[in-house]
Amino acid sequence: MPLSTNAPPKGFSDTEFIDRTAKAQALMAKDDLAGLLLMSEEDIRYFTGFHTLFWQSPTRPWFLFVPADGKPIAVIPEIGADLMRRSWIEDIRTWSAPEPSDDGISLLIDLLSPLAKETARIGVMKGHETKLQMPLGDWENLTAYLSGLKILDCTPLVQSLRMVKSPAEIEKLEYICAIGSATFADMPSIIRKGMPLEDVFREFRLRAISLGADDAPYVVGAADQGGYSDVISPPSRRTLKDGDILMLDTGCTWDGYFCDFNRNWAIGHADDNSKRAHHVLWRATQAGIETAQPGKTCRDLFLSMSEILAEMDQSDGNIGRLGHGLGMQLTEQPSHAAFDSTLLKENMVITIEPSLNYGSGMMMVHEENIVVRRDGAQLLSSRASFDLPIVN
Q1: Which domain does 197 fall in, by range?
Q2: What total number of domains does the chain contain?
Q3: Domain match, 152 and 70 both
Q4: Are 122 and 208 in the same domain?
Q5: Against a cut of 0.85, is the pTM above it?
Q6: Looking at residue 134, which CATH number applies to its domain?
Q7: How far apart, in whole angstroms, are the C-alpha atoms of residue 100 and residue 120?
Q8: Do strands 332-335 and 215-225 pair parallel, antiparallel, or not at all (unpaired)?
Q9: Under 8 Å between Cβ of 256 and 273
Q10: Fewer CB within 10 Å, N side or C side of the chain?
């Protein structure tokens, strides 16, 4: 039965987007920016609520300009005009797309030419975890026509806004995490020895959707004797065997927001190494949860978890990051890593994701989702058990 009785409203009120835009414009004023030119699905949706699966098609580019004052301006293919008109956006400029010779470029030139004449400064996403979502040739033509513009990197500005979630966003994240938790709780009754891993993945997806998830676009994992060594490959027809350690990691979605956490099980029995690895990971996760307070840094999280992982981990500290931000994307900024000094703030939603290597090339990963609150962390996912669960 879907968890629909606890579902928050879908979408957002106009007030949500007015507030986001006002915060962006306040930061733009500090940086003397005349506007932000945004192109990615999540950044456009953040300021407009424009939510569609049509982004799966790479054929058409989409643009949003957030000016220093006033409402954002959409420059989009005509096919998206009707949906965009249902948002709070009023100025919607369209073209018949695709048109490879002029896919919205002349509309952007018309919009930005007055700013180019003033040698104004505008922001474009240039940094880590961003990409130019238009043809490079079109970008070169646009900047050639608008040579007066000074184009700066607005990645820190936009990411700083998106890292801190509103109460309405947290409601959606809490709901999809509840669906993910309920799905994981049901899996021991579904998993059985001899079941192909491919079928395990399929049953997980079906169960998540039956419980109310809009989709389960990210389901990865592995199963092997005493542990696993690969957590990103598609599932095979290999069947579950006694002594396997099975891991499933999911990013289910609801109203455009992701959960992202995993669970481990032993099939039939678990060896001592696997049991110990699960204990160490649980304690490292707990250390991360307890460290996640406003004023701490992502580096602090990384170090608190690494100290416990060192009891068993055989990777010589070369683990990478141990968690990340969460929201409209499965992984968002920041990163819990030695290089990331981002300060944790109230209402950040993050994953706590320690991993370790042990035995003969085995690994184990454990992940929970939390929201940073004024007095500490609030779990969004249901906490995993300390002991490695055994499925008989």
Answers
A1: 164-391
A2: 2
A3: yes
A4: no
A5: yes
A6: 3.40.350.10
A7: 28
A8: unpaired
A9: no
A10: N
